[in-house]
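Q: Please design a sequence for this.
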């Protein structure tokens, strides 16, 4: 079984926003950061001894501005095709995220005021439309794209055959990575319970590490314990009618 190396590519701060470089028989990039980040990602890929022209695929984990913001430009710079889930095709095609954002807590409510989260990215048309579990063997990586809806409808993760899970925004480090190693929600979820179900499905695959969009790698055991507490918290919110999802039309309740 070939080994796939997972290398973080910091896009904003030390680990506040991450893309990833996956190295196997050929290199693959996961996520493309905020608008204007393409050259930074390109240069960091080159600094790791990889010719950016050799990139086989750019996988976008979901349709939020800090993950697909530079995908179109990175596609032009590298010539690599872009893969994204069909359920997030609208944000990709329009360059606009689905709004309003649904905060998961105080950090999300604070970040929702940041005008940079509400800008329009350059639209893109994914070359590879993901609809279900998708092998990356043809792109030189011993890994699979796994649909993990909840954070957005079209969220995906990538798991390598040796157990590294590139998890997008399934889970994050606390305070956008400021507290490394401590699992937490990212600032927003479209469907918190759906996201938690996806997280549990990925944990059932027994990953060795979780590489996240915001922060440093997380230990699966610690994430499992956090998920158990989070399930209880969400149940309490739901019982009080305070758990809103995008499927609710963002009506009849408050964001958690």
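A: Design:
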């Amino acid at each position: 079984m070939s080994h796939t190396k997972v290398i973080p590519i910091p896009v904003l701060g030390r680990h506040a926003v991450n893309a990833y470089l996956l190295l196997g028989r050929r290199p693959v990039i996961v996520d493309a950061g905020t608008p204007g980040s393409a050259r930074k990602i390109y240069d960091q890929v080159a600094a790791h001894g990889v010719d950016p022209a050799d990139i086989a695929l750019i996988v976008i984990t979901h349709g939020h501005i800090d993950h697909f913001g530079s995908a179109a430009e990175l596609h032009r710079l590298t010539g690599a095709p872009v893969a994204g889930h069909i359920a997030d095709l609208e944000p990709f095609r329009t360059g606009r995220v689905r709004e309003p954002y649904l905060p998961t807590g105080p950090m999300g409510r604070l970040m929702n005021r940041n005008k940079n989260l509400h800008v329009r990215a350059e639209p893109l048309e994914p070359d590879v439309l993901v609809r279900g579990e998708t092998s990356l063997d043809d792109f030189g990586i011993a890994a699979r794209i796994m649909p993990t809806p909840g954070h957005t409808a079209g969220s995906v993760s990538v798991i390598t055959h040796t157990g590294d899970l590139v998890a997008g925004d399934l889970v994050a480090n606390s305070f956008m990575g400021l507290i490394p190693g401590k699992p937490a929600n990212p600032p927003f979820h479209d469907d918190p319970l759906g996201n938690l179900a996806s997280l549990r499905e990925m944990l059932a695959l027994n990953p060795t590490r979780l590489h996240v969009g915001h922060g440093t790698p997380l230990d699966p055991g610690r994430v499992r314990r956090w998920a158990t507490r989070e399930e209880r918290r969400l149940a309490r919110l739901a019982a009080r009618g305070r758990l809103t999802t995008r499927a609710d039309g963002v009506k009849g309740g408050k964001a958690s």
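Q: Thanks. Anything notable?
A: The longest helix spans residues 220-239. The mean pLDDT is 94.
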